[in-house]
Amino acid sequence: MIPKASYDVIVVGAGPSGSTAALHSAKNGASVLLLDKKREIGNPIQCAGFLPDASEVQALLPEAKLPETLKNYPDSCVLQHIKTQRIIPPNGNVKEFAVRGRVLDRRRYDQFLAEQAAAAGAELMAKTRVTRVEGTKVETSGVFGKHILKAKVVIGADGPNSLVAKSKGLAMKPESKETSVALEYQVRNVDIDPDALEMYFGKDYVPGGYAWIFPEGERRANVGIGIRSGMAEKGISAKDYLHRFMRDHPLAAPKLKNAIIMNVVAGIIPINGAPANTATEDTLIAGDAAGHIIATNGGGIPPAMIAGKIAGETAAEFAAGKCKLEAYDRRWRVQFGSALETSVQARQIMDGIMKSDALMNAAFKFISPEQMKVMQCGKLPGPVKLGLQALSRGKK
Q: What is a single molecular function from GO for this protein (predicted)?
């Protein structure tokens, strides 16, 4: 493919946020080029892939305008339907609540989203890396050769180490940036509940985070951990913690003792919210590039896609001379900014508690299953906040 010399909108990154941005820019009349550095869209996968039902997302983010592709997608993108979520504290006293959602085949889902963008008129170039962004000039290199392209708007949806964000002064300062390291295995031959997500806590297995078992079908699962390297034991790697969890955890190990590892997935998750600005006069950032992650659970697909929709619509309006690009920053914060900020506050409070299994057990004892459910989605009920703050100060 030989791209044109200029476009209204160039989107960097064809994950859920970038493809959604490209779709909504094209639907609103803009000429769009969608770039992705991967040889195959969606491969390698970069997250466990749980997507709550759209009705649950809407109930918890009532101001958000959900993209249609978050509500409706082919059954071929679904690995497993989920009915229950379980929280397992260090003492093993399980709490659970009902949740509706699906574990996705991220490769197929990401490809579906990119196909929708292309069907709306966006051009797509895979195996194309952006090497430089200067103003609205984008330099690329890849299987289709080297190009210098122009745009009215550049949308950076290129992940937590976004080149676009760094080039435009939108990246969070290093001293303010908090990340979690995620390592996960896709496994077969495991004895799990196929309808339930399970999240495990405990400093000996997952310091500063949690381990998970997400079913991907009969006797198949995604098993992983998200840990904070600064809270880990010296000399103990994420791989060491994951193997310890699979081998030694009293509740998880029996389910995983015959696991066959089929795929290894690793990534970085930004968990400190969004930077102060996510827009300039010619550039927007969205998804992981903008810290659009629910910090309490690392969930990023819904906020990334909501932000992508807003970014695409705003970019198209700007290209048509109907608004300033900076309107994007206000628009996404109105729709889900409060939930994002609250999730960061909850994560910060939990940081101190997670250093002690005794404190974690106490915290999980007084938080009800219903409260746990809303905390997973960026809410922090007042009584829970007060109780966690008391625990973090060492009070009973």
A: oxidoreductase activity, acting on the CH-CH group of donors, NAD or NADP as acceptor
- DSSP helix/strand/coil, 225: strand
User: 132 to each of 137, 157, 299, 307, how far by Cα in Å?
Assistant: 8, 15, 29, 24
Q: Do 280 and 171 touch, CB atoms closer than 8 A?
A: no
Q: Both 288 and 165 in a single domain? A: yes
- pLDDT per position in the chain (396 positions), as tens? 889 999 999 999 999 999 999 999 999 999 999 999 999 999 877 777 899 999 989 988 899 999 999 999 999 999 999 999 999 999 999 999 999 999 999 999 999 999 999 999 999 999 999 999 999 999 999 999 999 999 999 999 999 999 999 999 999 877 667 788 899 999 999 999 999 999 999 999 999 889 999 999 999 999 999 998 788 889 899 999 999 999 999 999 999 999 999 999 988 888 888 999 999 999 999 999 999 998 877 788 999 999 999 999 999 999 999 999 999 999 999 999 999 998 888 888 888 888 899 999 999 999 998 888 888 776 788 888 888 888 887 654
Look up the CATH number of the domain holding residue 257: 3.30.9.10
Distance CA(265)–CA(20), nearest Å, equals 23
Boundary (domain end) residue, out of 241, 268, 295: 268
